Amino acid sequence: MRTASLPHPEHIPQYRQLYELTGLWAHRWLLDAANPEPLEFLDQRGITREVAERHMLGYTLHDEQALVAFLTEHAPELLAYAQEAGLLVVDRQGLLRTHWNLCGALLRPEGLYSSHLVKWRRLRAAGLLQALAPQPRGPKPVPSDPVAEATIGIAQAWRVLGVPRSSWYRARQMPKAPPPAPIDRPAPARALSAEQRDAVREVLNSPRFQDCAPRQVYATLLDQATYLCSWRTR
After folding, report:
1. Mean pLDDT in each 10-residue stretch from start to end of the chain (234 residues)?
2. Which of 31, 57, 111, 215 is least surrounded by CB atoms within 10 angstroms?
3. Residue 59: how many other CB atoms lie within 10 Å
4. How many alpha carbons lie under 13 Å from residue 89 in its C-beta half-sphere?
5. Please, how many CA atoms are within 13 Å of residue 101, restricted to the half-sphere of its CB?
6. Number of H helices, E strands in the chain
7. Residues 70, 72, 74: CA angle, nearest 5 degrees
8. Does residue 151 sit in helix, strand or coil?
């Protein structure tokens, strides 16, 4: 596989036009009713169609000639800059094809200028998005497994949408079961009686021991041959 041409700063305006057209082309294929798998893939991860439309997410076909045919038909004057922009490459047979990272991939507007999104939304509102869609020639290529080969993940998708990933996970959590009712346990046979507890409490709260820890009180009373209860008793 040959390497792509290096970009040139003076061609940045052409690159921007190519990115705009590619984004619109990919967005159209994401919303195509004949291609439901990418939207189903996003929906399984909590990204609805409305969210995908609002944030201009897109999907590129597995057909390596699809983007080439689209640019050739709708923007032939920009085709010479597509390799420099990283959209197309030349294979070993010398044929121009879509970059392998753009075959069967979900596209996000991350890294593009915000003005691109504004312009894309205006074009979509004006009904120009459908006009940019390439007319099918013969049977449409069916992706082999767009879900398995999609390149976007949960973290990347929510970073694009500007939503904390923790909120999505929290919303998907099942409601917790109520805590079990407390069980009435029988009192141990060697437990202190109510009178014994009152006697211990009275000693602990007396002026002599009110500032002492239970273990100190226990040791002092043992020195005086007095045993009320273990210092661990509660």
Report:
1. 64 85 86 84 79 81 89 90 87 88 76 48 55 54 45 62 70 70 82 87 89 88 87 75
2. 111
3. 27
4. 14
5. 7
6. 11, 4
7. 65
8. coil
